[in-house]
Amino acid sequence: MISYAPFYKTLLSKGITEYQLIFKHGVSASTLHRMKHGQAISTKTLDTLCFILECKASDILEYVEDQ
């Protein structure tokens, strides 16, 4: 299962809010909603988030084995 827990840690460490992602950087609210609920995002979205946050993909998502 893919977890987006690192994404929220990265946002906090960079001092960026979801509001800023939506209104300043043009990330769709539905994308953030999908991430909050553990749903899939595209590699294009992942690339965009890495660019905005100046980070690696591992700072946005991680693989967690199902128990």
* Beta-strand residue percentage: 5-15%
What is the distance, rounded to the nearest whole angstrom, between the alpha carbons of the first and last residues? Answer: 10 Å
Q: Tell me the strand order in the biggest sheet.
A: 1-2
Give the helix/strand class.
Answer: mainly alpha
Q: What is the tally of helical segments?
A: 4
Number of strands: 2
Stretches with pLDDT under 50, minimum 5 residues: none
One letter per element, helices H and strands E, the order comes to: EHHHHE
Radius of gyration: 11 Å
- From the spread of the alpha carbons, the general shape counts as globular
- Average pLDDT reading: 95
Largest sheet: 2 strands, antiparallel
Fraction of residues in H or I helices: 40-55%
Describe the structure.
The protein has helices at 5-14, 18-23, 29-36, 43-53; strands at residues 2-3, 62-63. The model has no long low-confidence stretch (mean pLDDT 95). It has 67 residues and is mainly alpha-helical. It has four helices and two strands, in the order E-H-H-H-H-E. The chain starts with a strand and ends with a strand.
Label this structure with key terms.
single chain, mainly alpha, 67 residues, globular, two-stranded antiparallel ribbon
In short:
This protein has 67 residues and is mainly alpha-helical. The protein is built from 4 helices and 2 strands, in the order E-H-H-H-H-E. The protein has helices spanning 5-14, 18-23, 29-36, 43-53, and strands spanning 2-3, 62-63.
